[in-house]
Amino acid sequence: MANRMEWPAQSGSLETVERATLQEQIYRQLRDRIMSGFFQPGQALSTRSVAEAVGVSVMPVRDALRRLEVENALVVGHNRALEIPRLDIATLSEISATRIALEGLAVERAQPAFVAADIGALKDHCETMSGSIDAGDIDGYLGANWAFHSHIYRRASDGILLSFIESLWLRMGPYFRLTAGDREHLDNAMIIHHDIVGALEKGDAASARSGIVADIEAATGDLTDWLAKDTGSAAAS
Amino acid sequence: MANRMEWPAQSGSLETVERATLQEQIYRQLRDRIMSGFFQPGQALSTRSVAEAVGVSVMPVRDALRRLEVENALVVGHNRALEIPRLDIATLSEISATRIALEGLAVERAQPAFVAADIGALKDHCETMSGSIDAGDIDGYLGANWAFHSHIYRRASDGILLSFIESLWLRMGPYFRLTAGDREHLDNAMIIHHDIVGALEKGDAASARSGIVADIEAATGDLTDWLAKDTGSAAAS
DNA sequence: AAGTGATATGTGTGATCACACTTAGAGTCA
DNA sequence: TGACTCTAAGTGTGATCACACATATCACTT
Using the CA of A61, which nucleotide's C1' is the nearest one? Predict the structure, then answer.
């Protein structure tokens, strides 16, 4: 009974996306929820519980969960059920270093392909982020933040590199929300974002890369502090 | 009939690995064959054809193929069937840049963890490679080459970073064999490998990284030439 | 002879069932 | 009271079936 999933409201949105396989719809829904921090680290997602929650058979759920497992967004847990992976400092360090390597490469590759419309899109995303911060809308901020970054990376890759970066964000998704409430962190992030836009506007790939690296290191630093503080106090199973 | 798979000899080895799910055994077998260049680029691998070839139902094959699809080792092809992806110059360039970023990072992270036993293992792999070259054993060379590299990367990561690197090798696997027949390429590669071992033995992470980068760039250069020559002559569908 | 339709084949998708395995817990016995 | 066994629930795994869809082939019509 402890594994009973809470699957509020949004469940109906599964029918909205027509013309896609059930497996694809479920995958995308779970993926969005993982990246936006809907699920708690350690929460179990078994095929039957998810299948019952969305009202389909286990087959498409099985495919969706397996896909997420391969992408490192889920790991086998307690009694063979898949669950949201917990993050320790060592793993966070590895993920951060990998993010710097991949996202740094991506922004360098993206810069030559950037046109005025891309700069405009990035500025729009920055506007959305600022507005969400003022409104206290963490979901809005996180969504715009990913839209900002993915717009850049999508100019560098149409395949493998982008899928790797998405996998890393998916892995950190459940934890992004935890540090996104801090105003100081958010203000600093916005400064960095504007620096990145400015660098890309000037065609300065090296500075753009430095900006991305600074953004990743800031997020990693905040999360490292949070993890260190958390492991000291929380003993919840 | 054109999609009829040829599945010679080794098929029996599926039963050798006990204590693993069928899906896992099939995945591993397909994975090894892809990385060693057993399958031709463009060759179709449908669930039913593979299931019939190995003598199981479609379920475990379906899982194994999906996993490989998520890892970019297979792509949806002609009539929705999965097939070995073809490589074009632009994709090769992206893969190469990503390999440099990730494998360069991995060797830098691995260096501090290296001990004498690791150096010895690398030298053993070099011996195997040299012997395979002299014997004209391409499979032996490719296997030892991957063993050499993966031994290094395994000291840097137990998870995400390693899985990304494996995904990239899996993506290039079908093409490795094509340039591995050139003696000049092989001799050059062996020099680089010895340089890498020497750098790691001295604890020189920067030189080790340079060696890895040189190895990747050499392989990429040879394969780029091969692809350019191939697209000029081959018009086979 | 050329276009057009029906048909056969191959494909992934999804549902349902049976099974083996693991784990937690209640029950029983010493 | 403690240790043990047995049972029940929960889990992924694999087989089998039916279905929708895409493609190619062949016969039929014009």
Answer: C14
pLDDT values of chain B reduced to their tens digit, one per residue, 237 residues: 333 445 554 444 444 445 689 999 999 999 999 998 899 999 999 999 999 999 999 999 999 999 999 999 999 988 889 999 999 999 999 999 999 999 999 999 999 999 989 999 999 999 999 999 999 898 999 999 999 999 999 999 878 999 999 999 999 999 988 888 788 889 999 999 999 999 999 999 999 999 999 999 999 999 999 888 776 655 443
Tell me if B132 sits within 8 A of B141, measured CB to CB: yes
- For residues B173 and B130, the answer to whether their CB atoms sit within 8 Å is no
Are B62 and B172 within one domain? no
Tell me if A4 is assigned to some domain. Answer: no
**C-alpha–C-alpha distance, residues B119 and B201, integer Å:** 7
Token output for B85: 């992806």
Asked whether residue A116 falls in the same domain as residue A77, the answer is no
Domain of A75, CATH number, reads: 1.10.10.10
A64: domain range?
A: 9-83
**A74 in contact with nucleic chain D (CB within 7 A):** no
How far is the C-alpha of A39 from the C-alpha of A170, rounded, in Å?
Answer: 12
Nearest-neighbour CA in chain B from A131: distance (Å) = 34
* A138-177 per-residue burial string, b: 16 or more CB within 10 A, e: under 16: beebbbbbbebbbbbbebbbebbbbbbbbbbbbbbbbbbe
**Alpha-carbon distance A213 to A108, whole Å?**
12
Q: Are residues A181 and A140 in the same domain?
A: yes
Q: Which residues of B touch A159 (CB under 8 A)?
A: 72, 91, 94
A213 C-beta less than 7 Å away from strand D: no
A62 and A177 in a common domain: no
- Based on the domain organization, do B213 and B106 belong to the same domain? yes
